[in-house]
Predict the structure.
Amino acid sequence: MGLNDRPAAERLHIGFFGLRNAGKSSVVNAVTGQKLSLVSEVKGTTTDPVSKTMELLPLGPVVVIDTPGIDDEGELGKMRVMRAKQTLSKTDVAVLVVDGEKGVQKADEELKGLFEEKNIPFVVVFNKSDLLERVPNCKENEIFVSAENGTNIYELKELIAKVAKLSENKKKLVSDLLKKGDVVVLVTPIDAAAPKGRMILPQQQMIRDVLDCGGINVVTKETELEQALSVLSKKPRMVITDSQAFGFVSKVVPEDVPLTSFSILFARYKGELEPFVNGAKSLSKLKDGDCVLISEGCTHHRQCGDIGTVKLPNWIRGYTKKELSFEFTSGGEFPEDFSKYALIVHCGGCMLTEREMKSRIARAESAGVPITNYGIAIALMHGILERSLSPFEDITL
C-alpha cells in the first residue's frame, strides 16, 4: 500500500517521548531518515508535538510523533507536558528515549507507568551509546543506539515493528459479513456540506473493503435509491447509508434487506458499538436544562443544514421534547471536564485512531457521562436501531 493509500487514522502512530536533551528529536530524525524535528543543545527545542505521515520500513505507512520534553518547566512548560501526555491517547507504540549516559530517571519511570496503565506497547531506547565505555545488556524491549553515528538505528526500527504487532487491528469494516459476489448498496447523500468532486473518507474506505472481498458496490444518492434497487437482478446483501438519510432510506429499503450505516460499521470496527448502543439509551432520559455535547473528530467549514450543529440538535429536541442546550467540539478538541454534560454524541470517528476513540469513550465513562455516536443516535430516534443492528449477531438492544 502506497504512501497516499492509507488514511492517517489507519496508520500506526509511533510516539517518541522522553526528557529534554535525551536526544529524542535526534533519534526521531535518525529513524525517519529526515530532519523531521529541530535538534539543538538548548533544552526544550521541541515545543509542541510534531506529526508526520510517512512510509517507514519495515513498518509501512505510519504517523511519527515527536513530543516536547516531559520535564519542561514553567507555566508554558506545563502546557507542553500536558500536550505530550495527551498524545498518548493516539499512540499505538511508544518509544521512550533515555540519555544513555544518565540512565533511567524518575520522569522516565513515570512515563513507563503511563504506557503500562494505558496498555501501550513500548520500547526503551538508550541514546548516546557512542559516549559509553561499555554497552550494558538490555531487556527484551530495550536497545542502545547512537543517533549521532547511526549505531543500531536499523535494529531499533525492527524492534518497533516487532512491538507494533501487539496493537495491529485485524478487524474488517464490513467484508467479514460478505462473501464473493455479494451486492452492497451504499447510500451517499450529496448536499451543501459534501466535498466537491470526491467521496468522503468513510465512503472511500467502505468501497475499498467491499472490493477487497470480491463484493460488488452500487453507489447511489438517496434520491435515486428506489430506482437503483429496482434495476438490481438480485436482492442486495446489505444497504449501508449515511446516518443523516437513515429515516428516508429505511422507508425505501425492504424489511428483509439488512440496513445499517457507515458510522455504525465504524463503531463496530473500532470496538465501540456496544458502549455507544448503551449510551444512546440515555436520549430518553434527558431532562429540561440538560447540556448535550456534540463532538466531531475532524474540522470542516460549517454549512447551513450541517448535521452536527443543526440537524442533530433539531432531531434530539424533537425526540426528547425537552429544552436542551448544546455545545460543540471538533478535531483534537475534547473536554477534560465533563461535569456539565448529560450526554455526548460523537461522530463516526473515521479521522481518529481506534486508540483515540476508545480513550474518549473511557474518559466519558469514567466521568459517568453516557456517550453514543451519530448513526446510533439517529437510528434510535427514527425507531430503526434494532433493524440497523440486525447484521451483527453479537449486539442486541
